[in-house]
Specification:
Radius of gyration: 22 Å
Number of domains: 2
Largest sheet: 4 strands, antiparallel
CATH architecture of the largest domain: Roll
Order of helices and strands: EHHEEEEEEHE
Structural class: alpha+beta
CATH topology of the largest domain: PH-domain like
Shape: elongated
CATH class of the largest domain: Mainly Beta
Strand order of the largest sheet: 1-2-3-4
Helix content: 25-40%
Distance between the termini: 27 Å
Number of strands: 8
Strand content: 15-25%
Length: 169
């Protein structure tokens, strides 16, 4: 993913794929929502406009449209990148979706980074440990870019990098 602006060389942003932990897949949610909307529209077209029930049909239509927008936001990048890992000289950010909080780790507060094949475990100077999951990174090349960027910044910012093979770099 390309980064615009003058700081494009020092900033790395990697888009994450949607989580696959939902009880119903995106396709099933989308099909159910389309059936829901079709059913409500059929009810609206077949009912009497002066009926007291038509008000409820409009409420169900609004809820169906809201749910459709929600599942599209959570599972696609139609409205821009929603899930990403960003590594800059000032901080590391991990965000897992539109309605979820960002996890921000300022670089000056990092004491040690343990790099495993699918995660980064960051130990802060206050002793707190932060786990950054890399399982959703789409491409192996992007995962390597994240790890290389963290390794590259270590000497400059004075934190220790330990790899899963117990080698320090």
């Amino acid at each position: 993913m390309a980064v615009s602006g003058s700081s494009s060389r020092s900033t790395l942003i990697v888009q994450l794929s949607p989580t696959r932990t939902a009880k119903l897949s995106f396709t099933v949610q989308l099909i159910l929502t389309v059936f829901w909307l079709a059913w409500v529209i059929a009810l609206l077209l077949s009912s009497n406009p002066e009926s007291s029930q038509s008000f409820m049909h409009y409420i169900f239509l609004g809820l169906g449209l809201a749910f459709l927008v929600y599942i599209i936001l959570q599972n696609t990048s139609v409205f821009g990148v929603q899930s990403y890992i960003e590594v800059t000289p000032q901080y590391i950010v991990q965000k897992f979706g539109v309605f979820r909080k960002k996890q921000v780790i300022p670089i000056p507060e990092i004491e040690q980074v343990y790099i495993s094949p699918l995660a980064l475990r960051v130990t802060r100077k206050d002793g707190a440990k932060v786990y950054l999951d890399l399982k959703q990174v789409r491409k192996k090349r992007d995962m390597e870019k994240i790890k290389a960027k963290v390794r590259h910044m270590a000497p400059e910012h004075g934190y220790v990098v330990t790899n899963a093979t117990n080698q320090r770099s």
